[in-house]
Design brief:
Elements (H helix, E strand, L loop, with lengths): L2 H10 L8 H11 L6 E4 L2 E7 L6 E7 L4 E7 L5 E6 L11 E4 L6 E4 L21 E3 L4 H7 L5 E4 L4 E2 L4 E4 L2 H17 L7 E7 L7 H10 L3 E9 L19 E5 L4 H13 L5 E5 L7 H4 L7 E9 L7 E4 H16 L7
Parallel strand pairs: 3-12, 3-13, 13-16, 14-15
Antiparallel strand pairs: 1-2, 2-12, 4-5, 4-9, 5-8, 6-7, 6-9, 7-8, 10-11, 11-17, 14-16
Length: about 350
């Protein structure tokens, strides 16, 4: 399976947080090549792979929802007011093209003040409670097409950059989903000590519902959460200035994560010549691991992140090689029996 084509198809799917169905259909299509045990419930997908008779279960989680907007008002002139559904970088919103989730052919542009008419007060990031969208229609027409509660998201499309990089909306976290699909491909026809459950979870960007309920349902012995984290770019200082694209996935080291799992992932990467980087976080990770670690009686959990630039915008950037290496790292960890194989 071509990794870039997989990522592009996933990123073209709708699936705003709470309305994940279109993306789940795409993911199910790809995962069905590697398992016939797939269930979709409450906006999340679970696929069972590996040794289905094992009494040892590892949960692999990647959230499948994307950020977007919900329609909250339509004024008398046909302008549509929306509220963010998930974290939006408001600095990038002015003049952004958005589309309706249920009909992507209907597009509108986020209203913005021309600089010629501005007194300078509009030069700051747009307040999220003042986002209006222009669909080019009067009230009578727009109200026939758009209703309260409808979801919108970025209309930008995936594209190639140079040097193996790609740009797309919702690479957070469709690239993580792609890595788990690739992991399922690598595990196919391999004997493993684990029952492997892939959870493509809902609503991470809003409440973490899919990870909370999914982890409670599975009661796994271990879990690996795959998400994105920050890569270096101009003017970034501190630790993340050292994280590079195309240098491998980031293995998180955190006080809430299982130390043995993080060490084992690092050892596997070294032994299998898989490039990797370390990401130390003193407390919460900001990923679904924060929910899964405290699910039920507690789950030993690790986090592997794909380096990304321009997070929570319409044009996020990653290296395709980092997705492949994330899949390899997790697959090899599972093949080696994990951190508790004695």
């Amino acid at each position: 399976m071509n990794t870039k084509e997989l990522i592009f198809e996933l990123c073209c799917a709708m699936g705003v947080s709470g309305r994940e169905e279109p993306a789940l259909s795409v993911a199910e299509k790809f995962l069905s090549d590697y398992t016939d045990d797939i269930k979709i419930s409450n906006g999340s997908l679970m696929a069972v792979c590996g040794n289905k008779n094992s009494d040892k279960t590892i949960l692999l989680d990647a959230h499948i929802d994307r950020i977007g907007f919900m329609v909250t008002e339509i004024n008398e002139n046909g302008f549509v007011k929306v509220s963010p559904c998930g974290g939006i970088d408001a600095r990038t919103l002015a003049d952004t093209l958005l589309c309706l989730q249920h009909n992507p052919d209907i597009t509108g542009v986020v209203c913005c003040m021309p600089p010629h008419l501005s007194d300078g007060k509009e030069d700051k990031a747009m307040p999220t409670d003042k986002i209006w969208v222009d669909f080019g229609l009067p009230y009578d027409e727009v109200s026939k097409l758009i209703s309260f509660g409808d979801m919108l998201t970025f209309a930008s499309k995936p594209a190639n950059l140079l040097n193996g990089r790609i740009v797309a909306p919702c690479l957070d976290n469709r690239c993580g989903v792609a890595s788990l699909v690739k992991c399922a491909e690598l595990l196919k026809d391999n004997e493993t000590d684990y029952k492997v459950i892939i959870l493509l979870s809902s609503q991470e960007e809003t409440f973490g519902t899919g990870a909370k309920t999914g982890a409670f349902t599975v009661e796994a012995d271990e879990s690996i959460v795959v998400d994105v984290s920050f890569a270096s770019q101009p003017d970034v200082s501190g630790f993340y200035s050292s994280i590079e694209l195309n240098k491998g996935p980031m293995i998180c080291i955190s006080s809430i994560l299982n130390k043995e799992m993080s060490k084992s992932l690092e050892s596997v990467a070294k032994n299998k010549n898989i490039p990797y980087q370390l990401e130390p976080i003193a407390g919460r990770t900001g990923t679904n691991a924060d929910h899964i670690t405290i699910s039920g009686k507690g789950v030993k959990t690790a986090v592997v992140s794909i380096p990304q630039r321009y997070m929570h915008t319409q044009n996020e950037v990653i290296s395709v090689a980092d997705v492949d290496n994330t899949a390899k790292l997790i697959a090899e960890y599972i093949k080696c029996g994990g951190a508790f194989n004695d």
